[in-house]
Amino acid sequence: MASVSPELISPRSARVSAARRLAKRNFRGKERLFLAEGPQAVREAAVHGDTLVELFATVEAADRYADIVGAARDAGARIHLASEDVIADISTTVTPQGLVGVCRFLDTPFEEILAARPRLVAVLAHVRDPGNAGTVLRCADAAGAEAVVLTDASVDLYNPKAVRASVGSLFHLPVAVGVPVEQAVSGLRGAGVRLLAADGAGDRDLDDELDKGTMGGPTAWVFGNEAWGLPEETRALTDAVVRVPIHGKAESLNLATAAAVCLYASARAQRAAGGCRSVTGN
Question: Looking at residues 82-93, what average pLDDT do you find?
Answer without folding.
Answer: 90
